């Protein structure tokens, strides 16, 4: 019995020894490379394993419910008969949108290397399948910005949601190539070449075959300041007007200035903004959605008559307490339309436009907001006769940011 037990023990020992010897010839398991927090650029960043690049993933999920009230001819005049709203479509509509952002940053010998991507996925009433928009996609190194980004002309784009009716300002994502110089104390200057054919706010709205090919990119410049009291900017653009069937082009331009002042003496996070812009042959830099307005019209003798427009916009945000806030924006737009002599009308497509919006937003927990908003647009449009029309939309928005 003892001999049997000894034999079993010896056999087990030999087997264990053989196994250990075999293990010595195998590579050791790779060490687990845990994700590490990157606190160099603020909250939410982490190191991509195996690299010195920091990544932040963000975005939102939004549900929006709208009710409409407008004059009978407003939708046709304003161009809202695109499935979102028209006199014969629903008076109640919905929009569901998801946003995804990727922000990567790496320190290099040439400065901070950054890339940023923002995509929108949207389903609107009357559309069975989602639309996908590459809203932004750009890279930065030092003062260089290349890709699809916010136009460097833009400063104030409103305080309220402006989900349907945008107030009078420039607010466009465009393909661009820009360089920014920091002058110290929060002051910077930027020069940007921007592709006028790529903006989400139409730089070249087309129905009557007025515009020709894109001959030159827009040249945008700004001087900006951002400090503890708030921010301000002056901006200008040279915008080429190229007619459809002629090489007789002409340069248009626009200029603007805006200031935002923080108001912590009223409540933390409060602010007020005022902005004005003026343009000739560059209407979309003054307002994003003016009615049926072109930068220019070609006359029978081949010359170009350019549209002149100016706008002023202002708004504020007030935090009632930690959970409730209100934002409002109002703007006025005046358009002296280019002459339509080519159609023997001998008058311009003049218009005046008022936009306003106000909301009340509740934030019950961090990252979640529930907001109710009313948006209003009034248009006084003159071409063959004078049309006065207005529209109003009320909406409820529920949004989770992450």
State the main characteristics.
single chain, 402 residues, mainly beta, Porin, 16-stranded antiparallel beta barrel, 2 helices, globular
Explain this structure.
The chain has 402 residues and is mainly β. It contains 2 helices and 19 strands. The protein has a 16-stranded antiparallel β-barrel. Strand 7 (173-184) and strand 8 form a beta hairpin. The longest helix has 23 residues, at 2-24. The protein starts with a helix and ends with a strand. Mean pLDDT is 85; it is low at 1-22 and 79-88.
The biggest beta sheet, please?
Answer: 16 strands, antiparallel, barrel
Gyration radius (Cα, Å) is: 29 Å
Tally of DSSP helical segments: 2
Query: How do the strands of the widest beta sheet line up side by side?
Result: 2-3-4-5-6-7-8-9-10-11-12-15-16-17-18-19
CATH class: Mainly Beta
Name the beta content range.
Answer: over 45%
CATH architecture label: Beta Barrel
- Outline: globular
Mean pLDDT: 85
**Number of discrete domains:** 1
User: How many strands in all?
Assistant: 19
Output the CATH topology: Porin
Gap between N and C termini, in Å? 71 Å
Would you tell me the structural class of the helices and strands?
A: mainly beta
Which blocks of ≥5 consecutive residues have pLDDT under 50?
1-22, 79-88
Secondary-structure element series? HEEHEEEEEEEEEEEEEEEEE
Helix content: under 10%
How do the helices and strands line up, and which of them pair or pack?
Blueprint: H1 2-24, E1 46-47, E2 54-70, H2 74-78, E3 92-108, E4 111-124, E5 131-141, E6 144-150, E7 173-184, E8 187-194, E9 218-227, E10 230-241, E11 250-262, E12 271-280, E13 296-298, E14 304-306, E15 308-319, E16 324-336, E17 350-362, E18 368-382, E19 386-401
Antiparallel strand pairs: 1-2, 2-3, 2-19, 3-4, 4-5, 5-6, 6-7, 7-8, 8-9, 9-10, 10-11, 11-12, 12-15, 13-14, 15-16, 16-17, 17-18, 18-19
Keywords: Cell outer membrane, Ion transport, Membrane, Porin, Signal, Transmembrane, Transmembrane beta strand, Transport
GO biological process, one term: monoatomic ion transport
Protein name: Porin
């Amino acid at each position: 019995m003892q001999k049997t037990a000894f034999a079993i023990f010896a056999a087990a020992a030999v087997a264990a020894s053989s196994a250990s010897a075999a293990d010595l010839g195998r590579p050791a398991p790779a060490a687990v490379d845990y994700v590490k927090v990157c606190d160099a650029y603020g909250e939410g960043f982490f190191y991509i394993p195996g690299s010195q690049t920091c990544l932040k993933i963000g975005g939102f999920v939004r549900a929006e419910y709208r009710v409409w009230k407008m004059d009978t001819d407003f939708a046709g005049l304003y161009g809202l008969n695109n499935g979102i709203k028209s006199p014969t479509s629903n008076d109640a509509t919905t929009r569901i949108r998801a946003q995804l952002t990727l922000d990567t940053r790496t320190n290099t010998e040439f400065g901070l290397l950054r890339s940023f991507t923002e995509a929108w996925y949207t389903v609107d009433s009357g559309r069975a399948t989602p639309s996908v928009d590459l809203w932004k996609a750009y890279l930065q190194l030092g003062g260089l910005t290349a890709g699809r980004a916010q136009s460097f002309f833009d400063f104030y784009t409103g305080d309220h949601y402006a989900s349907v009716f945008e107030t009078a300002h420039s607010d466009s994502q465009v393909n661009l190539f820009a360089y920014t110089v920091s002058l110290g104390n929060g002051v910077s200057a930027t020069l940007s070449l921007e592709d006028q054919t790529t903006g989400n706010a139409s730089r070249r709205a087309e129905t009557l075959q007025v515009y020709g090919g894109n001959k030159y990119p827009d040249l945008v410049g700004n001087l900006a300041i951002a400090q503890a009291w708030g921010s301000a900017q002056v901006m200008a653009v040279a915008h080429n007007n190229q007619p459809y069937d002629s090489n007789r082009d002409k340069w248009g331009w626009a200029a603007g200035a805006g200031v935002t002042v923080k108001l912590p003496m009223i409540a933390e996070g409060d602010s007020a903004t005022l902005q004005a812009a003026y343009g000739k042959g560059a209407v979309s830099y003054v307002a994003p959605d003016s009615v049926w307005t072109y930068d220019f019209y070609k006359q029978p003798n081949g010359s170009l008559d350019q549209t002149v427009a100016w706008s002023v916009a202002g708004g504020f945000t007030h935090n009632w307490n930690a959970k409730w806030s209100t934002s409002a924006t109002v703007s006025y737009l005046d358009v002296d339309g280019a002459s339509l002599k080519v159609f023997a009308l001998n008058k311009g497509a003049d218009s005046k436009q008022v936009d306003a919006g106000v909301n009340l937003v509740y934030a019950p927990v961090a990252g979640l907001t529930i907001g109710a908003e009313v948006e209003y647009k009034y248009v006084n449009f003159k071409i063959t006769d004078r049309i006065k029309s207005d529209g109003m939309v009320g909406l409820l928005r529920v949004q989770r940011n992450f």
